[in-house]
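User: For my dataset I need records formatted as: sequence, then structure tokens, nothing else. Please produce one.
Assistant:
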Amino acid sequence: MKRLRICTVITDKDVPSIRRAAELADLFEVRIDMIGAGWNEIVPELHKPWIAANRSVNEHGKWDGGEEGRIKELLSAAGLGAALIDIELNAEGLKDIVPQIKKKKVGCLISYHDWQGTPSTDELAAIARRQIKAGADICKLVTTAVKIEDNIPVLEVIRMFPSARIVSFAMGAEGRLSRVLSPRAGSYFTYASTGSGKESAPGQVPAEVMRRLLGLVR
């Protein structure tokens, strides 16, 4: 059986925790905005594929250096060996940014986040179609679960696109179920933190815990 994939999110320069997480991770996400200046210093420690992400304050991130600088920093990751660049579906100038990413010969992950709730399955499917049309190599759909039933749409939408690479789950305590079950539903991977207290989003669990949970749902 194919190993369930974990993308471990790096939010700081704690090299020992990165090295420990590397034993459990299949790939990394490097949160440029959370790590801050000198984020590229950790790149030599990454011996697995990694995604570059740089969230603005408007996207619940910490980058406040302006949009032009944010995109420039993202694109610079391609030259450092990033396998994928994460750009938001709602990013200003998306139609111009995607070709720039692809020109760098890296994959394009187009992400959508709903910090208020969880749209219906059909609404999520419509968002995925927009991502695919925009040129996504991977579609990321992340919502917020306010009740246990909110885990259902984010899992159902994965099955609606069998030929696409979809990552879909819900944030928050009520959404942890979808984080664990999403790989079994066909999600390309799921996210985890390098350790407790290093989460990049509500409901994220440490990679060690996620690996054990995934082992129970094979």
